[in-house]
Amino acid sequence: MSATATGLEPTPVIFDPFHGVSRESARSEGLGLGLDIVQQFVRCSKSPSRGGGGDAPGSASERLSCFCGTAARASFNEECAARDLERNTRRTGVVWIDTGFRDHPVRKRVIVPERSKQSCSDAPWLSLGEIASVEITSEDAAHPIESALLPGAQSGWRAADPGAQVIRVCFDQPQQLSRIGLEFNEPSETRTQEYVLRWSGDGGQSFHEIARQQWNFSSPNATCETEEHCVELSAVTQLELVLTPDISGGNVRASLSRLRLA
User: Fold this and answer.
1) What is the CB-side half-sphere exposure of residue 32 using CA atoms within 13 A?
2) Terminal C-alpha separation, the chain
3) How many alpha carbons lie under 13 Å from residue 260 in its C-beta half-sphere?
4) Nearest to 191 by CA among 145, 251, 143, 240
5) For 213, how many CA atoms within 13 A lie in the half-sphere containing its CB?
6) pTM (predicted TM-score)
7) Chain-centre distance of CA 206, in angstroms?
């Protein structure tokens, strides 16, 4: 009598769980736990009795108890966790991250921020000369505020004094605003400017900030700042622009080339 079976190829990973091998047949692949279970069962059956209970050393119940706390149980738990993760991802569309800290797991997920869906309307610019009055803290006679507010003007507004300045548009009737356009030009000075946009719905008793932004002017490459803020504001009674021409406190006069509202 002789053995005709092909047998197992000698390999150091034959008892490793989840170790896959190439298969020529179309059978479904298992988890690679068969020989690992046998190995753990044999090891536990040889372990000395831990005392207590009525079973003799090496009894079936003790071997089963020992085996359930070994690597096979951990492998099974890993498989279940992977399946739960896959099901949750398909159900919610959120990818949960497994960092490997299985003794102290923390449920967490990566949140992809939604891109802003707000876009500026194509409403025409308002004719501010017909619907509003303007308050300013300073004005150069050669560069009045009308040059920044009215279409066709070229010179823009410039303050008569250095330091922070305020331009306030006061509407005759509450207005709905969807966009605010600003343009600043500085052809020579190197400075960092900051502006704050605020609006009021109660005639200036309280204000709500829309934007706070800084810009570094530097000749010759950064001499112009153009901004367009998309907003959804209703019942606006006043719009205020606070300009700090140089946040370092330099002796600089504020200027504004264009202010448009829609």
Assistant:
1) 14
2) 99
3) 21
4) 251
5) 14
6) 0.56
7) 31
66 within 8 A of 47, measured Cβ to Cβ: yes
Residue 30 confidence (pLDDT): 57
142 to 58, 139, 161: CA distances (angstroms): 103, 8, 13
Give the model's pLDDT for residue 198. Answer: 98
Residues lower than pLDDT 50 in the chain: 25-26, 28, 49-57, 64, 67-68, 116-117
